[in-house]
Amino acid sequence: MWQNLLRTATLSISSADGSFPAKWMLDPMKSMVWRSKLGWTVVAGFNDKLDFNLGGVLVATIAAGYYQTGAALAAVVETALTTAYATGKWTVTYDTATFKFTILHSITAHVLLNLTGANIASTILTDLGFSDAADSSSAITHTSDYTSYQSRHFVTFDLGAASLITAVGAIGLQSLTSLGSVRLEANTAGTVAGFQSPAYSATKVAADFYDDGLIHYLSQTYRYWRIVLDDPSKTSGYQQIGLPYIGGYFDLSVPPERATMGHGQDRFSRSSVGDAGSVFVDVRPTGKTRNIPMKLLTDVDKANLETMQKTIDQRAQFFAFDPVNVPAQFLYASVVVGDFVHHMGGGPSSAYWDGNITVTERLQ
Amino acid sequence: MSGEIGFVANRPTYENIVESSVSSKRSFLIAKPTIEPGSWTLSSGNAYLAPFSKTYRSLIRDVIGVTVEGLTPLARAESLADCIATPNTFYYDPNEEFLGESWAWDDGIHLWDSANIYWDQFPSLYVNLGGVDPNTLGVAPELGFYFTQEGQSQPTLGVDLLGGIGMFEAFTASVPDGWTYAKTDPDVVATVLEDNANIYEGSASVKLDLAGATATTRQAISALVTLIVGKRYRISGSYRRYDDQACVSFAELSDSGETNFLAFDLRSSGTGRASFIFNGQLGEWRRFTLDFIAPFTASKVILGAKWSTGTVTGGVNFDKITLKRVWRQATYEARIAADGVPSSQMGSEGILFAGKTVGVGSVAFENSDGAYDYAVGQLRWIGRKIEHYVGGSTDLGEVDIDDWDRRFTGIVQTIEFSDERVMFQLDDIRAKFHKLLPPNTLSTHDANIEKSARGRVKPLLFGSKNAIRPWRIGFDSVSLVTGEYLIADTTNWAPGIYSIANVYAYVDEDAASKVDTSRRITMNLPQVEVAPETAYNGMASITAASTYQYNFTKIAGDSWTNNFAGSKLLLHGDGHVEWSAGGVTNKAVIVGLSAAHDGALNYTDINFAFMIQADGTMRVYEEGSQKATGTAYTSVTTFRVKRTGTTITYEYNLNVGGGWVVYYTSSTASSTALCMKLSIYTGSATAFAVSLLGFGQVDSQELSGAFVLKENVGPFVVDLSNQSLNFDIGASELTATVPVGLYTATSLAKTITHEMKKGATDLVCSYSTSTGLYTIARPSGTLNLKIQSGANKESSIWGLIGFGRGGDKTAASTYAADVAVDTVVSIDTNRIIRCDALGYKDDAIGTYTGTANSLIQIGSDIARALIRVWLSQPASIDDTSFSAARVLAPEQLAIYLNEFESSVGIFNRLEASNLADIIVGGDAKVVYAVYVYDGEEVPVSRRLESRDLLEPPLFTRINEEVFSAVSILFDKRPDNGEWRRETAVDTSKATIYDSQILKEIETYVLMLSTAESLAARTLAISQSPSLRVHIVSGTRLFKSRIGDIVTLTLNRAPSLTGLLANQPFRILSIEPDVLAGRVTVDLVEA
């Protein structure tokens, strides 16, 4: 995958730490990451509604803004609930021992509409740690189901025009908790409100990760794409993306020659052997290498590979490796194609080529 | 990636990395280019602001330092309010949040908006220069650029908000200074102890020992600190758990009342104690970091130990605790290639001290993608710093940034830009120490400066130096004669010089060169009280009452007019004459200051006189006019007539040691030169203990490092060939014989007067400084000068005082000389002046010597002053080593620089003088390491065995380093550059090695005894070929430096035993290669 359309895309984000700007997602260096602000960011139309039933269905609208601490967020939620239903007293707190929010109405039992609320597409209850499996029972006090250290975050990409996308991925992600997910959405409208009901959506969880990356195959044509990082229980308090990928891919028509395929490692560690046989090692990270011999590549395969080489040269690409009977792998790597050798030596079967693909993981 | 808020304990120390044979060592480069800010506008108070927003690599770059022309680098204020309130600070927050959802800006004038809502808001840099407008100075904001080998994020930290108390170096009543100690069970646990045995850094750590605790108990130390709520901070430090896992060590952060605590999410607060628990191997130092968002303003840092189970036997040590603002998370880009960072090398030039070679080379970062093209092109890199740190990780994790080792600080000399990479040729920070001294020169066109001095340097003077040839740089603005002489330049040194010990006028250059004490006049110095040399008559005796006092006893009976004494010395400025009642209250004596040279024969002839009377009372007379009377004095009362500025006061002191009482203040201003005059009324009585203090011929001006000669100091040489003077007053010829000796113009006149009065009591000889003419006069009656016909005309003094020998002088009573004698003009080139002086004085708080206002004369103190002031590197002193060197090398040194000399050469001589290594460390700190190895135990980390070596050791002995004798050249004379020399010889050793080379070493040693010792010590090092070893070790010597002692244990060596067993060696040169994990070291026998 080398046709990353994000290089020319316009980004909009829910928030960014001043030290980790959003543009760094477009930097090919993996360690240059975008990082959300620490804590909770409330964005109108994304996570600013709280549906509840207290003598009737009501909705509270939380003031959009950045809230570094749970106490700060609790205060604005309380204000919003009071605005929506002024009788009695609302008390919203954040417990710094359990890291859960509690919503209390002084008089009346009520139901939090975690599942059935009319504004569930922009609910804040998820950010507060409430499960979306079912609405709450009716009670005066509701404590969130899960811990919450941060809100959900999103990055929206405007490709400029509707484009056929067959692969979406990202590397440089934090690991997800068991509750967390990464959701890919696509839509014809790029506004926050428009994405409340996206035309396309797919969700990835921790089990889908390979190292610090994700890959997802699809075939959708849209102009606006959004990645939602949904993991409020992540204790770090922020989310990050090193390098996202939204574009195309091509799949070789033949599997590699498994018999001679090589899985190697770039061993960057250095060692010196002392005068008396002692060993001194400067330990460095290890990068994956893959040596993939290919046989009987078609002219189309050859043309694609040549185009890739011509287009991106040595720059790193997203490389998915998913042959039969071999665990799927997903690397951010440089992919170098060796010389093509005519398999049959000419004649009518000249459409078949042998070649070698070398993949070297980019650690940085 | 790292850089999230969080708590991490059991981190490795830098030492762990160094000493582990399996670790990850990483280089970190911080480059600090600059760019001119725009114009400054006054913000508030003394704080000015300039809009400043430099975006490179999509990131608004942080300003991590600000240097200002002529000032020490500005400190970063914690807040804008702090910046406004604190001079010499700057404030910058690139992550500043603005109103509105996104940033936008225009040109700063409200063109697109009418208020300060959106458009005009973008980061501003604030500086407070204490009232100085930054538009008038060069201001250089330093932007931070960060590179390493593997991309990662590290905090950019501010100053330690604990102010260094976390080093635990000072204790009061066993509690570390700045901390409060609390324990919950005083009966069980021991108290806080200063621990000098288990130290992470410095000389002590704090120990919290729970030994004996059997139930829930805790003890802790706490320190208050002010934070800004919502801002990010880091507490980091070293801890060492010992003896017992049941002792739990922890850190907490609370409000000042310990009511609310920082919660485990590290940004909220709650009422429950949230203890961040340290784990780690017992008995070993580990590091912890606690990154948090401050929930309180008044905050308390708590470090402690608490019981967990059973009976506790252990505790915990803490050391090197810091609390710093995290200004930003800096992403270190993975752009350093394998050869991007050179090894830094520093070596001695030989086995002896004096002289170092330094190599830093170049650093480079990859730029094939062109990401830094704009940054390189737009910013100023030349002359700016690049700092190189080493950190990394072991199995325990990553070393925190506070514990990184700063390998070197390079100054960019050259930038090489290619498509592939950007390379910086660096010089060591020592480049900042390469400067020609002295820095200031005398004017080339000032007509008042003697020609030979024009354009020459203004000298520097440290310590005590004799025979200084001062530059004549001006003239006395009052008398318009004689001259102002410069000893030492105080342009850069406000406290001035310590003192001027002596000023001499020599007869000629030959006498000065030979320091011929018989052919020079010693000038009077204002700070020295002297017994007044006088011209007198009618005195039975003049005896010394003390080293600075005379008793004058008259011969004849009661009368004011039958005796007289007048000082040869003139007081030209502030000063006084002082005397005592002398144990009696029944004598009449008058003593005072008078403008007339002499001739007073009555108490009415003294301008300002203090009279004591036989009735036990005192009076004030001014030229016979009584100004005050009637106050009683005692037998021990002392009296002064004193001039301060132009005011004359009459003071007395009733009791010895008591206070002075102003008896009368004259209404007559006085500014002309005054001499002491006295007369005694009571027959055979005595004027007791008369002394003079004040500005005589020399007006010393220590603050400006100069002095002014107030008179024509000559010297006038009177010998047997020119000592006689024949005259008559109408009768037989009289002869006055001037004693053989050297005189100033005035003292010669007074002496002639005195000698003539022996024949005729009303004769006066005087000298005019304005005309240069001597005059001999009699108030009335006959006076004939027998110049040609006198009996002693062959040995007459007439020629010396300007009277032509053509004939006698007759028919008048006043005779002026025919020619001016040795006329003094504004450019005086006739006088041969030399002086002895003590050089630069410390300031009022003892910044340089540890003692206020003392003489700077110890090697490390001199080096400190040179570095701080003359090399303008005030932050570059390693205070610990400099203070230690003051004790280890306390010898008096003296430096007089009246020619340009490289500061490096000066440091080389200091090294030779103290047997010391002056080393610039990687942190740009200068270390003054005195060589005093005397068999002390060497730290384990520096005990090397063969298994620690990467290559076979190479042993050498070098004939060129063997000397038959060592000559220490010391106490160089300022006026002619001659050295004194002390030589040490060992002929037996010289015979064995057939050595015939004499080693000469130039030093700043002042004393012969020091030179003797130095010669002997140096000869001991060099009289036989020392065993040198060239080794390549692993990283254990990473933190070592020149002069450190290491031991070698090797099973083969060219030694007496064929091996080395813990043999001590001194490091001559060291080259640590971080990336290769190798340290190349040259050693010599210690």
Categorize the overall geometry of chain A.
elongated
The proportion of residues forming helix of chain A, as a percent range, comes to under 10%
The counted number of beta strands of chain B is 80
Secondary-structure element pattern of chain A, one letter each = EEEEEEHEEEHEEEEEEEEEEEHEEEE
- Report the uncertain regions of chain B: 99-113
Q: What structural class do helix, strand and pairing data of chain B support?
A: mainly beta
In DSSP terms (H or I, runs of 4 or more residues), the helix count of chain A works out at 3
Overall mean confidence score, pLDDT of chain B: 86
**Whole-number mean pLDDT of chain A:** 89
Net shape of chain B? elongated
Task: Compute the separation of the termini of chain A in Å.
Answer: 18 Å
Amino- and carboxy-terminal Cα gap of chain B: 46 Å
Tell me the β content of chain B. Answer: 35-45%
Radius of gyration from the alpha-carbon trace of chain A, in angstroms: 25 Å
Q: Could you describe the largest sheet of chain B, including whether it forms a barrel?
A: 14 strands, mixed
Helix content of chain B: under 10%
Strand-residue proportion of chain A: 35-45%
Characterization of this structure:
The complex is a heterodimer of chains A (364) and B (1086). With 364 residues, chain A is mainly beta. Chain A has helices spanning 70-84, 125-128, 299-312; strands at residues 10-13, 34-35, 40-42, 49-53, 57-61, 65-67, 90-94, 101-105, 111-112, 141-143, 153-171, 181-187, 200-204, 214-230, 240-241, 243-247, 262-267, 270-273, 279-282, 286-297, 317-321, 329-337, 341-342, 353-361. In chain A, strand 21 (317-321) and strand 22 (329-337) form a beta hairpin. The mean pLDDT of chain A is 89. With 1086 residues, chain B is mainly beta. In chain B, strands 1, 2, 12, 13, 17, 18, 20, 25, 27, 30, 31, 32, 33 and 34 form a 14-stranded mixed sheet that branches. In chain B, strands 28, 29, 72, 73, 77, 78, 79 and 80 form an 8-stranded mixed sheet that branches. In chain B, strands 42-45-54-47-48-49-50 form a 7-stranded antiparallel sheet, with helices on one face. In chain B, a hairpin with a 2-residue loop joins strand 49 and strand 50 (625-632). The two termini of chain B are 46 Å apart. Chains A and B meet through strand 18 and strand 19 of A and strand 2, strand 6, strand 23 and strand 27 of B. Strand 19 of chain A pairs parallel with strand 2 (22-31) of chain B, so a sheet runs across the interface.
